[in-house]
Amino acid sequence: MKIRNWILGLVTAAMCLSVYGQGVVNVTAGGVRVQVGKDSVASNAAGDLGTDVEMDGVAVINGNVYIDGQKVPRGKTSYVSKKTGKAYRIQWGGDGNVAVEEK
Question: 84: domain range?
Answer without folding.
Answer: 2-102
